[in-house]
Amino acid sequence: MRRIVYIVMMSVLAINLSAQKESADIRTGNKFYKDSKFTEAEIAYRKALLKNKSSFEANYNLGNALFRQKKYNDALEQYNLALATNSKEKTKLAAAFHNAGNSLLVSDKIEESIKAYKTALKNNPSDNETRYNLAYAQAMLKNQKKDKNKDKKDQNKEQNKDQNQQNQPQPQQPKEQPQQAQNQQPKMTKENAQQILDALSQDEKNAQDKAKKIPVRATKKADKDW
User: Quick one: CA dihedral 113, 116, 122, 126, positive or negative?
Assistant: First the structure.
């Protein structure tokens, strides 16, 4: 954004009209503007408009003073008021459309700024500054659309990924055995239990007899305590 502001600042067209028909307030405003005293210039131009609100010069130069103070919306309003005075001089119209385009561009209204620059060129086809700003704005718009398309593709890609995950088969929950099957487990009788106990006792006696026949080995002492 700083680069954009710098570019348009350097291309603000100040007519600095000095014809005798200008009021003293406009001439005072022009002096302040030339000395970069933009607030004082704004005051002088507003005084001129109090005397003649239909002055192209006062509206246009006030727009420039406001633009230099980064009051871009207010500046655009003044340029439009200057154009509304129905000036027949194409040079003036081209300058007003050029600066209106600058105000729109720094306000991120790129497509509108392109229209303003094109209209300025229709009134003054030889203005290279307007041609440069037009090309710059068109390049910005192209990049903006490219970024939007990229963001849209990334968003669609993410949505498709989520959709694919949703469409994947989900693991089946383990089914519970029917209650009836669980109730069909055979019941242990008293006789069965006694038979199992007798078998365990005999297995334990046999294991003891077998252990007595195995020779005892000496315990090996470890070389280190780990």
Answer: negative
